[in-house]
Amino acid sequence: MKEYDEATLKKVQQTELGILKDFIKVCDENNLTWFGDAGSGIGALRHKGFIPWDDDIDVVLPRKDFNKMIEVFKRDYSDKYTIANVETMENYPLMTTRLMLKGTKFVEEPLKNLKCELGIFLDIYPYDNIPDSDEELKKQAKRAWFWSKVLILRHVAFPVLPYKGFKAKLTHAVTGLIHAGMVVFRISHKWIAGKCLEIANMYNDKETKRMAFLFDTNPYWHIMVKEEAFPLQIYDFEDVKMPLPACEDKKLRKMYGNYMELPPVEKRKNHYPYKLEFND
């Protein structure tokens, strides 16, 4: 797979930083809570900006603030940005949301066959209330994992796997059959997405001690105790300020181990997308 040259990667990063600045402006003007996450959290803590080889920005909003942010961008920025999520795009297969710059294209290899217009984006995670009971959380997490994978397979016959060889070929034979079956029997995107959203919102009408995004590869990666997360701490990220949860170090170590140590050079991967175009 082709990798970025330095100039192209820098241009992707600067385009994404411009999207982030508009996002921050909307959040500030509407008093919305947001913070960095995952690779962007590592970038802020370790590099005071992008991880040098990274090509995306990850941010989080609690569901209520997320809904308001979407409303504002649809109302006031529809000439500049497109929103991609399961509610706005019929063929979008992920429970994350993308704020995409119009006039650009950014299509990852696994998504190249989607019937979606995908552009350079800010990756946004809505965090939902989750139950205080670990037993109830386990049930919710299992459902979230299952239905988010069904959603992906509805649109992607051969998803990216963390392994190769015979096991990968066998898995892709199964996923291809599942995908074909859902297409033949007309299992709708809307129905599957509705299941996912129903699971996400199960506890949003209740006061709970924790919040999370449960639809990642591991549904337990993004769990946060609210009293450990707030007040947010402010860090430099390139030429802007990025809030991070007070428990970000604990969260990142759970996801990545000793993230402050640079990975070996052979693991510092970035992959040029299947299709990439910049606007003027």
List the helices and strands and how they pair.
Elements lengths: L5 H24 L5 E2 L1 H10 L10 E5 H14 L4 E4 L12 E5 L3 E3 L13 E10 L3 H22 L9 H20 L4 H12 L9 E3 L11 E2 H4 L3 E5 L2 E5 L3 H9 L18 E3 L3
Helix pairs in contact: 4-6
Which parts are unreliable, with pLDDT below 50 for 5 consecutive residues or more? none
Which class do the helix and strand fractions yield?
Answer: alpha+beta
Shape: globular
Order of helices and strands: HEHEHEEEEHHHEEHEEHE
User: Would you tell me the overall average pLDDT?
Assistant: 95
Quickly count the helices. Answer: 8
Largest beta-sheet characterization: 7 strands, mixed
Total number of beta strands: 11
Structure description:
Pfam families: LicD. This is LPS biosynthesis protein. Residues 27-257 form the LicD/FKTN/FKRP nucleotidyltransferase domain. The chain has 280 residues and is of the alpha+beta class. It has one domain (6-277). The chain contains eight helices and eleven strands. Strands 1, 2, 3, 4, 6, 7 and 8 form a seven-stranded mixed sheet that branches. The protein has a two-stranded antiparallel ribbon with strand order 5-11. Strand 9 and strand 10 form a beta hairpin. Helix 4 (134-155) runs antiparallel to helix 6. It starts with 5 loop residues before the first helix and ends with a strand.
What attributes does this structure have?
280 residues, alpha+beta, seven-stranded mixed beta sheet, two-stranded antiparallel ribbon, 8 helices, LPS_cholinephosphotransferase, LicD/FKTN/FKRP_NTP_transf
Structure at a glance:
With 280 residues, this protein is α+β, with helices and mostly antiparallel strands. It is built from eight helices and eleven strands.
